[in-house]
Design brief:
The protein has 611 residues and is of the alpha/beta class. It contains 19 helices and 26 strands. The strands form five sheets. It has an eight-stranded antiparallel beta sheet, covered by helices on one side. The structure holds 6-O-phosphono-alpha-D-glucopyranose. 6-O-phosphono-alpha-D-glucopyranose binds next to helix 9.
Length: 611
């Protein structure tokens, strides 16, 4: 949430920052800004997307070999030019960009106000800038020390980068709860809130941990704790490549990522699904099976789409591994008396590995003695680093704000975990295991079949482009898919949509059904098929417009529906992996028809690093 990029070296910092901000724009795009030093300090800030900043930079011909930039997702203060980062103190000597929230900003603001500080905007970040200035101007400490001292006074979360007009030899960075890394080049260094702006220039990175700061010059970088203890940091090698973060001929990242799914699901299973031996091998969980098998309960904590994957996981763990599961919104879990203890296992699911609420839930569970496992996509992310053990989804960078390939990869991992644990606990029979191994292995080719012909989905999208509401119904494994389908539509097309367990419809949503209401019915699970037919009849009786997502064997539902989108048959418990794909496409085509900004939907951000 919000993106930071910085550069110090011998190249044009403005160009590197602009390109970096464009790569980071998926993290927020309310406003953008940068500060570049070249004798003087040029600070440019503008409401809107990075392209506005680019125009301004070209017009003002800003150049320099040191600078920082920011793309914002507003928390405190509306998105406008003034509230855009960087922020400066009254003397305009230094510029600061910030991700996160300074929670005690109001107290600090009042205190600084009494000391004569005036604030141009409403942001918490501007308060931090004034605090640093106050300490620097009023005490006998150098600028770096002033930053350190200021940070000891703030409560909340931050990833910050600062440049100073009269110290054009350094960038100061610090982190608490908001990710930040240093990219190491040859006589040049990069700063970024994730790896995407850096990958083009270097694969060597150092991740800052909470309560650490660094001073970066052209000669090197020095990392220390906020208590001033010097640290030697491990240098990591990035696994991603540039191609993965470009559109590759697709009009949108989201479409590219939907079409990548046959490969990402296969990548996720590679070396883990051992087909010849009917076996699952998840190296990341070696040594924790016993504790997982004997857990009193597994608590899955996640947000958004990852939470939907967690719901599928619940069904899978119960069915295949006989492990009791509770699925929690991480944001609710963290503030509840959840009675978690060392007999429990928490499994957190996060594409980015940086979601603030998920991270907080993880920390709370650990504090209370539970083992914490993770399913993350971003290698080296905070959540991945803080879990006791876990499994990467290996879906590659997901840039589209609406999550697609991360969901199918998460469900694939959950299916493999459940199968592995079912075997470990000896509750999953040889026959069913063999069948599921075969079925899982087919998933990439089944998804490919759906993607080969999208005409029907496009036709349905055309007909319902201007529908004001949608209802999604699913049962069993596909109830979470109904939720996910509705979420995709809301996120990118701004159509109000609700996902419901089909039978629950009778308890409320049925009142909404009339001849205008599109009802997407996911009929891909055999064992609830008869019940589903009854639910579809109920919709039909009220003249709802039924769009069935139906596997080949579910023709009864197909007969009742006005439109049927056929998906290949697969074992019930794996059906979410194929059933979700047409729903991703349906929302995509509707959003495109409505001329919505698919990859950067309004008000959303890819990775939510604030509460
Ligand atoms: C945001 C994104 C969603 C994502 C959710 C959880 O809301 O827009 O796509 O599902 O955060 O993110 P995570 O990275 O933890 O999976």
């Amino acid at each position: 949430m919000c993106g930071i990029v910085g550069y110090i070296g011998h190249r044009d910092a403005a160009e590197i920052i602009l390109k970096g901000l464009q790569r980071l724009e998926y993290r927020g795009y309310d406003s953008a800004g940068m500060a570049v030093i070249n004798g003087q300090m040029d600070v440019l800030k503008v409401k809107g997307k990075v392209k506005e900043l680019l125009k301004m930079t070209r017009k003002k011909k800003v150049h320099g070999s040191l600078g920082i930039g920011h793309t914002r997702w507003a928390t405190h203060g509306e998105p406008n030019d003034v509230n855009a980062h960087p922020h400066m103190g009254a003397y305009r000597k230094f510029a600061l960009v910030h991700n996160g929230i300074i929670e005690n900003y109001d107290v600090l603001r009042q205190d600084l106000g009494q000391k004569g500080h005036h604030f141009a905007g409403d942001t918490d970040t501007e308060v931090l800038a004034h605090l640093i200035e106050e300490i620097h101007e009023m005490s006998d400490v150098d600028f770096t020390e002033a930053v350190r001292l200021a940070l000891t006074q703030v409560e909340g979360t931050y990833g910050i980068a600062i440049v100073h007009k009269y110290h054009p030899d350094r960038i100061i960075v610090a982190r608490k709860g908001s990710p930040l890394l240093i990219g190491i080049g040859d006589g040049e260094y990069f700063v970024a809130s994730d790896a995407s702006p850096v990958i083009e220039f270097t694969k060597k990175v150092v991740y800052l941990e909470d309560d650490e700061m660094a001073v970066i010059s052209r000669e090197g970088y020095e990392v220390s704790t906020l208590k001033n203890v010097p640290l030697t940091k491990e240098v990591h090698e990035l696994a991603m490549n540039l191609e993965q973060i470009e559109k590759g001929g697709f009009p949108h990242f989201m479409l590219k990522e939907i079409f990548e799914q046959p490969d990402t699901i296969a990548d996720c299973m590679r070396g883990r699904l051992i087909v010849d031996e009917n076996r699952i091998q998840l190296g990341g969980l070696t040594g924790v099976e016993k504790r997982l098998a004997s857990a009193r309960r597994v608590i899955i904590a996640a947000c958004g789409t990852s939470w939907h994957a967690g719901l599928v996981g619940e069904y899978l763990f119960e069915y295949l591994a006989h492990i009791p599961v509770e699925v929690e919104y991480a944001s609710e879990f963290r503030y509840r008396e959840t009675l978690i203890n060392e007999q429990d296992v928490m499994l957190v699911i996060s594409q980015s590995g940086e979601t603030a609420d998920t991270l907080a839930a993880l920390r709370q569970a650990r504090k209370r003695g539970a083992m914490v496992l993770g399913i993350c996509n971003v290698v080296g992310s905070t959540i991945a680093r803080e879990t006791d053990a876990g499994v990467y989804t290996h879906a590659g960078p997901e840039i589209g704000v609406a999550s697609t390939k991360a969901f199918t990869a998460q469900v694939t991992v959950l299916a493999m975990m459940a199968m592995m644990m079912g075997r470990y606990k000896k509750v999953l029979s040889d026959e069913l295991m063999a069948e599921l191994v075969r079925e899982l292995n087919r998933v990439p080719s089944l998804v490919k079949m759906i993607l080969r012909d999208t005409k029907k989905i496009e036709e349905v999208a055309r007909l319902f482009t201007y529908a004001p509401n949608f209802l999604y119904l699913g049962r069993s494994y596909n109830f979470p898919v109904a939720l996910e389908g509705a979420l995709k539509l809301k996120e990118i097309s701004y159509i109000h949509a609700e996902g419901y367990p089909a039978a629950e419809m009778k308890h409320g949503p049925i009142a909404l059904i009339d001849e205008h209401m599109p009802v997407v019915v996911i009929a891909a699970t055999d064992h609830t098929n008869d019940k589903m037919i009854s639910n579809v009849e109920e919709v039909k009786a009220r003249k709802g417009r039924i769009i069935a997502i139906s596997s080949n064997g579910q023709s009864e539902v197909g007969k009742l529906a006005e439109f049927t989108i056929t998906i290949p048959e697969i074992h019930d418990c794996l059906s979410p992996l194929v059933a979700v794909v047409p729903l991703q496409l349906l929302s995509y085509y509707i959003a495109v028809n409505r001329k919505c900004d698919v990859d950067q939907p309004r008000n959303l951000a890819k990775s939510v690093t604030v509460e």
